[in-house]
Amino acid sequence: MGLVIGRFQPFHLGHKYLIEEALKVCDKIIIGIGSSNVSDKSNPYSFEQRERFLREFVNNEKLDNKVLNIVPIVDDPDDNVWFEILIKNTGKFDVGVGDNDWVNGILEENKIPVVRVGFYDRKKLEGTEIRKLMKGNKKKWEDRVPSYLVSQLTK
Q: Where are the beta strands (DSSP E) in 7-137?
């Protein structure tokens, strides 16, 4: 069983790629929503909104039997505390899948293997850039997220 962690601010096609790649490595995954306790300029969507985006993705992609759970992962400045909270929320998992160096470092320190899948079209599919486009309405952003989420993101 694998673990994928992201902030999903908002959920975009790069996240879709990450989850699809994780499911090539693992039969089943848990998705952790990082910074679930943070609300600021870089984290405008609440945990509940992001969970809704992910559940919509899971339903539309027919992954109900592959995504076992979607859980909050709160930020903590102490890596050991963060890891304890992570395990409490996720339960046991065999491998982390993702490209966040900080998360991967903590997992590896705790003897959990990590699979780095690489970012997919990172320049285009980066949350900060997508949020900037959404706010400025200068350039289309809709092609950077799954089409079934566009209406939820414009509310």
A: 29-34, 67-73, 95-97, 114-115
pTM of the model: 0.93
- Cα 153 to Cα 50, 54, 56, 92, 109: the distances in Å are 10, 12, 12, 33, 37
Residues of the chain scoring pLDDT < 70: 137-139, 155
* CA-to-CA dists, residue 143 to 31, 73, 80, 140, angstroms: 23, 28, 38, 7
Q: What architecture is the 2-153 domain classified under in CATH?
A: 3-Layer(aba) Sandwich (3.40)
CB 34 within 8 A of CB 74: no
What are the residue ranges spanned by the domains of the chain?
2-153
